[in-house]
Fold this protein.
Amino acid sequence: MKRAWSALVVLWSSKAVGPGEHAYTKGRAVLATGPLICAAALAGCASSGTSSQPPAAGSTTTVTASPSAPAASSSNTPAVGAPSSSSAAGSTACATSALQVKLGASDGYAGGVYQAVDFTNTSGSSCTLTGYPGVSLVSGPSHRQIGLAAKRSTAGAPAVTVTLGPGEVANAVVQIVDALNFPSSTCSPAKAADLKVFPPGQFTAVYLPDTSYGCRNSVQTLFIAPVRSGASSR
């Protein structure tokens, strides 16, 4: 076995790399003779007996405390994202009763609209918003949900905790894709009366006037971004 490997070493060291040739190419050609040498030695190319360890898994940094959300939720399911009692900064989560929730700036595009929702702290103390509001389109007085609730968008910056002092504002943007873009048989479009909004981590919703069309069938037309500091700009 030692003689076979010695021959391989000699072959390797004796092969000069000619002009225009890469050492990788010549080395591959020489190493290809290894099985022939091993066969001649009858001992074979046995493994060394040492096993390589798999690489350690990379660490993941969690940006928010919010768990993963399903693509859609029922109209009675609150938005999960903010802690229910306190945040790392020591402020409590903003209750729906401590917020003024209203429609902010909107930006239409061919096939839909980006609609901001503003959250203003109307209480006398600081509170926090973390993660994503829960958003869905609902029908008239019954407030029956139309189709799927908004899916969380992860295309932009990750979710963060926003601390709101008294009178301060945060916003989140919901993308509403026009249901009339889809075949009627696929979508079953229905005109909404309101946008139902749960502030992050809350169980009480606010209803904001919105007459967009949604799909009664399972076609995703709503996408929600995480809350950001500041009011939406018109």
